[in-house]
C-alpha cells in the first residue's frame, strides 16, 4: 500500500473508531422526559395505552395507510401476519434476506420454498416465483430488499392467477413510496420492523399494515394472546404488544424523521459521487421508488475489483470502519434450511453470487461526510 493510502488509514483511525453500518437515531434526551412523566402519571405501561393509540394514528397519517397494528418487534409481527391470514402448506420466499423472514414460516409450521432473485434489484424474481408454485403453495412472502420495492404488479398478478396470499416483509421499506403512494399498501399485509437499526425505530418494535378494520381487529386480538373481550380467548395468540415506552419513543422519532431522511439522502449521494468510476464496484440502484428512505448503502464487489469482497471488508475493519456483508450467507445455507430441495445452490445462482459480493457501507444521519470520503478513498485504494 502506498504511503498516501497508509496516511489515509491513519487519519480514519485517529478521527473516529468503531464506525458501523448503522447507528440508532436518538432524539435529544430532554425531549423524551415529558413523555416519561406522562407515562408515570397515566400509570399505563402497555396494553394499548394512550401513546400506543396516538402512535398508530400518527403513523397512519405519516405513511399514508388506513390501518396499522403495532408490535413488540417485526419478527412477531411476521409470525402473526401469517397466522392472521391462516397461511399453511408452502410459502415461496427469498433466500436473500435476514433470517427472521423464513423463521416466521417455521414458527407457523409452514415450509419455505426459496426462489431466486433479480440481479439488478436483489428482490424476488417474479418468473422464479411462478416456476416454484406447487399444489401446496398458499402464499408468497417477498422482501423489499434494502427498501427498494419489489415488482409488486407482477407479483400480484401471479398471486391472483393462482389464488395466493401475499405478505410483504417490508422491514426496510418505512416511508418508501411508488408512483401511487405508500409501497406498504401492496399485498394482503405488509410488515414493518422498528428495530434500533431501522430508519424509524422504537428501540424494539414493528407493525402490520392492514387493509381494513376487520383484519386489524383480528390481528389486535392475536397479538394479545387471542383475547376477545375480558374472559374469552378465541385463538392461540401471542404476546406481541408494544409498550407505552416504545410508543412514546416512536412519537418523538417522528418529529425528527424528515431531517434524518434528508441527511441520509446527502450521504447516499456522496457515496455515489465518490465511488463512480471505481473499477469493480457496483452501487445498487433503486427499483422504481418515487420516494426512497436511503436505509442502506450496499455495494457489489465484482470480479474485476483488485481484491476480494472479504479482503476489502477486512481492509475497512482494520481502520475502524465496520461494513457488513448483508446478506451473507443466504438463508438457504443455514442448517435448518439446507436440506430443502429449493435450497440447492443451482436453484439460487443469483442469490449466491450477490451474497458473495455484497458489502453494506455505513449510512446513518450523524455520519460525517469526511468519514464517507475516507471510506471511499480506502475502497478506491488511495
UniProtKB/TrEMBL annotation:
Q: What keywords does the record list, in alphabetical order?
A: Pyridoxal phosphate
Signal peptide location in the record? none
Sequence intervals crossing the membrane: none
Record's Pfam families? DegT_DnrJ_EryC1 (PF01041)
Q: Record's family? A: Belongs to the DegT/DnrJ/EryC1 family.
Cited PANTHER family: PROTEIN RV3402C, TRANSAMINASE
Q: What is this protein called?
A: dTDP-4-amino-4,6-dideoxygalactose transaminase
